[in-house]
TrEMBL record:
One function term, GO molecular function aspect: kinase activity
Keywords: ATP-binding, Kinase, Nucleotide-binding, Transferase
PANTHER family: SPHINGOSINE KINASE, SPHINGOSINE KINASE RELATED PROTEIN
Domain named DAGKc: residues: 1-129
Transmembrane domains' residue ranges: none
PROSITE patterns membership: DAGK
Protein name: Diacylglycerol kinase family protein
Record organism: Lutimonas vermicola
Length: 298
């Protein structure tokens, strides 16, 4: 067996070297050929393509957070190479959604041992940008953008921008075409959901399933302290989730038009401002290494 480890050295501010050392030791013990690919932020896609073509791994391990998972998924989705996730980022939302063991060493054992594979869906936005998790337009995208530009990190910094955005909330017009219908809505946020929860564990979409060939569009119509508390509590008990404050549409493709160009984030990365979004689903785009305890397989 050959395994390629795709490592983001800076994700989550976590030192990956202890894990890399352990992974090398396990691979040597069991006679597994391995290679380590570390992202640098410069021509990573091109360099990874060269490594994949040369090394030809049997399995690929994404070592990092949600951004690393997406990067890896895009790289392997047209190659029929199975990928697994080692959760070592600040946000490991997709790993949690897919029942990946939160302990990196045990996640590695599962990746090595498992022969259970499942098709993970991929969303394509404007024929160029990809998402396997959650994207949005509105308050959260604005917060992520401000947070990314700040040299400080942590919940205090996030809370600062969250409060600032709450002070200037203004609904905007949203035109959605999906399932042969047109929806005209006013909202504070539009969610594009291939799964259920943000990396924080707070669910936006209780109907999400990243393996069912459809995605959900959520229009959040109002945000107040009561609904925020309920959303926070829903991290621990989904019965607290407030479904009264949004519109939900399930579909496999959609076109969305805003009243003006608005900021889009996908899987924690700010993409840019768009007035129109065209969203398509690629069902089972990625061959995911998983196990029978993954709830989406039942």
């Amino acid at each position: 067996m050959k395994i390629l480890f795709i490592v983001n050295p800076i994700s989550g501010g976590i030192n990956k070297e202890p894990f890399i050392k352990e992974a090398k030791s396990k691979c040597k013990k069991y006679g597994i050929h391995y290679q380590i690919f570390k992202t640098t932020g410069t021509d990573d896609e091109k360099h990874l393509e060269e490594v994949l073509s040369r090394f030809r791994p049997d399995k690929v391990a994404s070592v990092g957070g949600d951004g690393t998972t997406l990067f890896t998924a895009i790289a392997v989705m047209k190659k029929d190479i199975p990928m697994g996730i080692i959760p070592l980022g600040s946000a490991n939302g997709m790993a949690a959604e897919l029942s990946v063991n939160p302990e990196p060493s045990k996640a590695l054992e599962d990746l090595i041992m498992s022969e259970v594979f499942a098709g993970l869906d991929m969303l394509v936005v404007n024929e160029k940008y990809y998402s396997i998790h959650i994207g949005d337009v509105g308050i959260n995208a604005n917060i992520v953008d401000a947070y990314d530009k700040d040299k400080n990190r942590g919940m205090t910094t996030y809370a600062k921008y969250f409060i600032e955005e709450l002070k200037k909330l203004t609904p905007f017009k949203i035109n959605i075409k999906a399932n042969g219908k047109t929806y005209l809505e006013n909202g504070l946020m539009l969610g594009i959901c291939n799964s259920r929860k943000y990396g924080t564990g707070v669910p936006l979409n209780l109907d999400g399933n990243p393996m069912d060939g459809i995605f959900e569009i959520i229009v959040v119509e109002n945000i107040n302290l009561n609904s925020l508390i309920k959303m926070g509590l829903s991290k621990f008990d989904k019965s607290f989730h407030d479904n009264q404050n949004g519109i939900l549409i399930s579909t496999d493709e959609a076109e969305i038009l805003f009243d003006q160009p608005r900021l889009l984030q996908l899987d924690g990365e700010v993409i840019g401002e768009f007035e129109k979004l065209k969203i398509n689903m690629i069902k089972g785009a990625v061959k995911l290494i998983t196990h029978q305890e993954n709830a989406y397989l039942t």
